[in-house]
From TrEMBL:
Pyridoxal 5'-phosphate (PLP)-binding protein, which is involved in PLP homeostasis. It comes from Brachybacterium sacelli. Keywords: Pyridoxal phosphate. This is Pyridoxal phosphate homeostasis protein. NCBIfam families: YggS family pyridoxal phosphate-dependent enzyme (TIGR00044). Belongs to the pyridoxal phosphate-binding protein YggS/PROSC family. Residues 99-248 form the Alanine racemase N-terminal domain.
Length: 248
């Protein structure tokens, strides 16, 4: 379901207003945590938005001197990045969605960073495809810190993530750079914070106990919980609806 009609395009001034609202939220949360909002990557979760809309936001972020990434969560949406509006604009492309082994080739070709390694067989498939393509890709291991059954990911313990991280450490084509989670799906801010803080604590534990200092990134925080995520140490927040509106 890719939109093409001009009538559906979000006006640039509306995108700019929403973006400045998101950046103000991010900066205020960063300030509360003694951090600089400019060091946090704003990943655009573009879903079905058009190349034109994504390009407008990328330009606005560049003008504001921000770290940017563009993320897709469906292999079907990857094709839009061949569009001249997005191709070769120098913005890192990430993959954030649930992976299937039969889409590994497309994802390896498209994304320099893959956030959603949630099973061993996905790591195997990505590694094989990266080797065939002669590419090295960054990966994050997805962790289920909320315990919600609908969510993928490894359990939030050193015992659960240790083996996959050791396996990735030994890979010649996949480089483990961080952990990713989707926060608890609840309006209870305490539960949301616990699910996000848990990812930071796990990363810190992995870094010291597995001697993996390169495991730097925490990909966490979306439109509804980005402030809590930034306060808890997110290095990449993934934002969709706060910029592009509710999904159809
Ligand atoms: C869509 C999506 C987001 C962004 O969600 P919003 O609530 O719209 O900001 C973040 N992460 C993943 C994995 C997504 O699929």
């Amino acid at each position: 379901m890719t939109r093409t009609s001009a009538a559906d395009q979000l006006p640039a001034d509306q995108l700019a207003a929403r973006l400045d609202d998101v950046l103000a939220r991010l900066d205020a949360a960063a300030a509360r945590a003694g951090r600089d909002g400019r060091e946090i990557t704003l990943l655009l979760a573009t879903k079905t938005r058009t190349p034109q809309e994504v390009a407008v936001v990328v330009d606005l972020l560049r003008a504001r001197d921000r770290r940017i990434a563009v993320g897709e969560n469906r292999a079907q949406e990857i094709a839009k990045h061949a569009d001249p509006m997005l191709a070769d604009n120098g913005v890192p492309r990430h993959f954030i969605g649930r992976l299937q082994t039969n889409k590994a080739r497309d994802v390896i070709a498209f994304a320099q960073t893959i956030h959603s390694v949630d099973r061993e067989d996905i790591a195997d498939a990505l590694e094989r495809r990266a080797a065939l393509a002669g590419l090295v890709r960054e990966v994050l291991v997805q962790v289920n810190t909320s315990g919600e059954e609908s969510k993928g990911g490894f359990a939030p313990t050193l015992e659960a993530v240790g083996p996959i991280l050791e396996r990735l450490r030994g890979s010649g084509t996949l480089r483990p750079v961080g952990l990713m989670t989707i926060g608890a799906n609840t309006s209870d801010a305490t539960a949301v914070r616990a699910s996000l803080r848990g990812l930071r604590e796990l990363r810190d534990q992995v870094r010291t106990e597995l001697e993996l200092p390169e495991l730097e990134h925490l990909s966490m925080g979306m439109s509804g919980d980005l402030e809590i995520a930034v306060e808890e140490g997110a290095t990449i927040v993934r934002v969709g609806s706060a910029l592009f509106g509710a999904r159809p």
